[in-house]
């Protein structure tokens, strides 16, 4: 399988994040990519490609222009105030506060565009996020040019980033950009299946009113799990998009038996939709050893997940999302991709 990868990810090394009320070292760290790269190179079955370049305007199909401008200029603005280190917001426009204007100061602007304090911006963040987006867009281009499947080794991840907000370690929505790339290249109906432990709130928001992209997410219930405020089963899309969002929230402690039943429901929905192509938001934080998640999938389940995805028989773009059990992330990603290469069809 083609693997698209950029070394620019390493410039985004966030330092610290606010996680469940405590300031801790970032779970989303550059070593994640090192372990994935090691495991995929050891498998020896993949063709490594750099991302292509794309005009900045392509981002505007998915994101608001003012949001892109904020991300692009955020760190220089922070530096202009004489600050350094990681940028973290500390005030947000919650209920009762104004959301109709963006404060001109960097601290207010940060709170306006962010939805958590777990997603630091550092000097290399914009370049890393842009390269990550280009990896996903390149993988989509490879599939439209005839590849059956391509994998974008994206870091930072993307599925929490919405049209005009960032959070959950995500800045640009890589999977949404891949789906849009497939649509622009003539794939009429694109299914986007998010198997990361956390709900893909950004992707859901982006495609909420669209009927050409089916969004399905299997994730820890937002009642107890991040991102807390989106991802319930009664969210089904709106307007033309009504019925084109399917959330399958599961309880903490979910094992493979219950997980694979949700996966079967997702597969049926993708087939009923008549998808021409599939984008997978591939988080492997469903793993039982993950430090910030609570499902019970073990190593032997990731080849089964890969087989279920491969068995859908559609052209596929796999986009890396989460996975924070750093020393096992490579094994688990390679196991999913290996199922594609050995054409295990279930
Ligand atoms: Zn996740």
Automatic annotation (TrEMBL):
The keyword Hydrolase applies. InterPro entries: HDACs, His_deacetylse_dom, His_deacetylse_dom_sf, Ureohydrolase_dom_sf. Keywords: Hydrolase, Metal-binding, Zinc. Its cofactor is Zn(2+). Gene3D superfamilies: Histone deacetylase domain. One of its GO terms (biological process) is epigenetic regulation of gene expression. Coiled coil: none annotated. The keyword Zinc applies. Residues 28-338 form the Histone deacetylase domain. It holds the Pfam family Hist_deacetyl. SUPFAM superfamilies: Arginase/deacetylase. CDD domains: HDAC_classII_APAH. GO terms for molecular function: histone deacetylase activity; hydrolase activity; metal ion binding. Belongs to the histone deacetylase family. This is Histone deacetylase family protein.
């Amino acid at each position: 399988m083609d693997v698209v990868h950029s070394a620019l990810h390493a410039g985004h090394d966030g330092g610290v994040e606010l996680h469940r009320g405590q300031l801790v070292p970032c779970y989303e760290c550059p070593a994640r990519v090192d372990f994935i790269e090691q495991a995929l190179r050891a498998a020896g079955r993949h063709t490594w490609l750099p991302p292509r370049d794309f005009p900045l305007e392509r981002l505007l199909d998915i994101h608001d222009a003012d949001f892109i401008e904020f991300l692009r200029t955020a760190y220089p603005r922070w530096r202009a105030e004489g600050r350094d280190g990681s940028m973290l917001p500390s005030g947000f426009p919650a209920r009762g506060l104004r959301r109709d204007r963006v404060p001109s100061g960097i601290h207010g602007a940060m709170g306006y565009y962010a939805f958590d304090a777990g997603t630091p911006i550092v000097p290399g963040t914009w370049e890393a996020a842009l390269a990550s987006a280009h990896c996903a867009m390149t993988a989509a281009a490879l599939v439209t040019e005839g590849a059956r499947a391509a994998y974008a080794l994206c870091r930072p991840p993307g599925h929490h980033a919405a049209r005009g907000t960032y959070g959950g370690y995500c800045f640009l929505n890589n999977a949404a950009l891949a789906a849009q790339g497939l649509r622009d290249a003539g794939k009429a109906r694109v299914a986007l299946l998010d198997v990361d432990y956390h709900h893909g709130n950004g992707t859901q928001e982006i495609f909420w009113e669209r009927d050409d992209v089916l969004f399905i997410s299997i994730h820890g219930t937002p009642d107890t799990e991040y991102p807390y405020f989106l991802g319930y089963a009664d969210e089904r899309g709106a307007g033309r998009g009504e019925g084109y969002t399917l959330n399958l929230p599961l309880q903490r402690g979910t094992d493979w038996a219950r997980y694979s039943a949700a996966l079967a429901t997702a597969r049926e929905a993708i087939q009923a939709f008549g998808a021409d192509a599939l984008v997978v938001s591939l988080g492997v934080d469903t793993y039982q050893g993950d430090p910030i998640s609570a499902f019970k999938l073990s190593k032997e389940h990731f080849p089964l997940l890969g087989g279920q995805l491969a068995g859908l028989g559609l052209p596929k773009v796999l986009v890396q999302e989460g996975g924070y059990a750093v020393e096992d992330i490579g094994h688990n990603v390679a196991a999913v991709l290996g199922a594609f290469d050995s054409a295990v069809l279930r």
